[in-house]
Predict the 3D structure of the following.
Amino acid sequence: MEKKAIYPGSFDPITNGHVDIILRGEKLFPQVLIAVLENPKKETLFSADERIEIIRDIFKDHPNIEVKAFHGLLVDFAQKNEAPIVIRGLRAVSDFEFEFQMALMNKKLNPAIETFFMMPSAKYAFLSSSLVKEVFGLGGCVSDLVPSIVEKRLHEKFRRD
Ligand code: PNS
C-alpha cells in the first residue's frame, strides 16, 4: 500500500500488543505515524512527553516510524499529516462496538480517512495498558507483556526494584 498510516492511541503505556500491530503495520505501509493522545482532562500514569520518549526509544532503529503527540480530532491530525489510513487493533468482540462507532464517526467527519483493522497476535489478545498497570501495581510480573523500557519506567514510577 502506498499511503502513510496513522496509529493513534493513549499508549499509557505502550504494550507488546501495540508493538506487534506497529511492526506488522510497518510491513504494509511505507510510513507509520504513531499518534499519542495528549488529553489534559484524562489522567494518565505517564505524561504525553514520557509516552512519546518511550515509544521513540523502542522504534529508534525504524526510520519509517515517527511518533507525535496529538490533541483535538484525530481526522484533522491525520489529514494535516497526510496519513489517510487509521490503523486500529481489534482484540475481541468487546472492542468492536466502540471501534465500529469511532470508525464510522471518523468517516462522517472526513470521508477521505479509512480505518484499517488488524487482529493482534493471539498471544496478546487479552492484553491492555490498563491491565498492565493493574497487574504491575499489585506486584505481578509484566515482563512478557511490555517492552523492557516500559517495565523499567514502571519500576521507576512505582519506585519498585
Ligand atoms: O488507545 P485508545 O485510548 O483506545 O485510543 C483512543 C483514541 C485516541 C484513538 C481516540 O480517543 C481518539 O481518536 N481521540 C481523539 C478525539 C477524536 O477524534 N474523537 C472522535 C473519534 S470518534
Q: What stands out?
A: Residues 93-109 form the longest helix (17 residues). The pocket of 4'-phosphopantetheine is lined by residues 8-10, 37, 73-74, 102, 105-106 (CB under 6 Å). Strands lie at 5-9, 32-37, 65-70, 85-89, 114-118.
